[in-house]
Amino acid sequence: MFGTETAFVAGAMRLRIVLSRESRFTVLTLSGRLAGDGVAEFRRTVEASDRPIQIDLAELRSADHEGMCELRRVCAEEQ
Fold it and tell me: DSSP secondary structure string, the chain?
């Protein structure tokens, strides 16, 4: 397994994205709050992936409306 960590910090909001490459897909583990500028960072991370994505939300504490919409969009595209 290969893991890379991307930390994105904007003011009091904090989102951590950890990428782990599995044999056929990439796991994105989101920690913290998916909101504001963090949504764009999440979108860029998803778009940069060259394989199918699975999203681990166990450590995600909250998401604003835009964050929830982006999660729904990514999940719909991955099906």
Answer: -EEEEEEEEETTEEEEEEEEE-SS-EEEEEEEEE-THHHHHHHHHHHH-SS-EEEEEEEEEEE-HHHHHHHHHHHHHH-
